[in-house]
Amino acid sequence: MKVTAKISNIHIAPRKARLVAGLIRGLDVVQARIQLQKSIKKTSEPMLKLLESAIANAEKNFSLAKESLWIAKVDVNEGQKIKRWMPRAQGRATPIWHRLSHVSLVLEGSEAEKKPVAKKKAAVKKSE
After folding, report:
1. Which of 43, 79, 97, 117 is deepest in the core (most CB within 10 A)?
2. CA 125, CA 121: separation in Å to the nearest integer?
3. Does 68 fall in a domain?
4. Rounded to whole angstroms, how far apart are CA atoms 69 and 5?
5. Is 12 helix (H, G, I), strand (E, B) or coil?
6. Domain count along the chain
7. Burial of 63 by CB count in 10 Å (0-12 exposed, 13-18 middle, 19+ buried)?
8. What is the strand order of the sheet 93-109 is part of?
């Protein structure tokens, strides 16, 4: 079973975000969380939030156990560019581009290790 989560327009350049994505690619979810929590990169905080979101999607929507999940794929793509200008000598200006990133995360888990779904109990009226 594949579970996806996406985050758009992180204010971090894709080149820097790919470094953190390479750290967690192929790991199981528990090890990836530890790796992201211990990392000092600025990208690790939004990536951890994205990982938590994907785990919650897997548990809530597909009833998969957290221990059976691993990261199958992490893609970091270039987003928009915020364009600014820096004044220079003799009336010139040079462009500055603030690059943004789009990150998509795919978790994969075995359906054999699904959590048991709790059945809803029927409401029982008390008679007086």
Report:
1. 43
2. 12
3. yes
4. 14
5. coil
6. 1
7. middle
8. 2-10, 93-109, 69-87
**Do residues 47 and 21 touch, judged by C-beta distance below 8 A?**
yes
Owning domain of residue 77 = 2-112
Amino acid of residue 92: R
Predicted model pTM: 0.81
Question: Which ranges of the chain have pLDDT less than 50?
Answer: none
44: domain CATH number? 3.90.470.10
Amino acid at 3: V
Residue 54: partners with Cβ closer than 8 Å, 6 or more residues away: 3, 4, 5, 105, 107
Q: What's the distance, CA 110 to chain centroid?
A: 20
pLDDT in tens, 78-108: 999 999 999 999 999 999 999 999 999 999 9
Pairing, β 93-109 against β 69-87: antiparallel
Is the residue at 125 inside a domain?
Answer: no
Question: Could you tell me if residue 61 is inside a domain?
Answer: yes
